[in-house]
Automatic annotation (TrEMBL):
Residues 1-14 have a biased composition (Basic and acidic residues). Residues 1-24 are annotated as: Disordered. The keyword Coiled coil applies. PANTHER family: TNFAIP3-INTERACTING PROTEIN 2, TNFAIP3-INTERACTING PROTEIN COILED COIL FAMILY MEMBER. One of its GO terms (biological process) is positive regulation of canonical NF-kappaB signal transduction. Keywords: Coiled coil. GO terms for cellular component: cytoplasm. The keyword Coiled coil applies. This is TNIP2 protein.
Amino acid sequence: EVQKLNQQLEEKNGEIQQMINQPPYEKEREILRLQKTLAEREKAQATSDVLCRSLTDETHQLQRKLASTAEMCQHLAKCLEEKQRKEKGNSDDQIPTESSNQVFLQLLYNETSLQALICNLQEENRMLKQKVAHV
């Protein structure tokens, strides 16, 4: 194992001597190449950070919208239940009034739009994840 390590040490020393013996312009070219690579990586990291922050902000905003919509749906469901209880209390044979139908349709519309919003958000989230992965 010591011989193996000595062999690796000799190889590294050889690489160092090769770098030392290179003409100055070769050293400068290598330094410039490494600086350029570093700058590209820093730029990619900065872009990734900005995209992640943007995605996080958008996620929080969409979560607030979703919570608000869910709260509205719950409120409408309670209103519908109350109206149905009142109608049943008045008459079991009575057909639902137009206002309860409107509440029900509004609730159905909100639920459908909520499902569409969720689908859109999932698709947008998938696309943003692809963009982040690409960056």
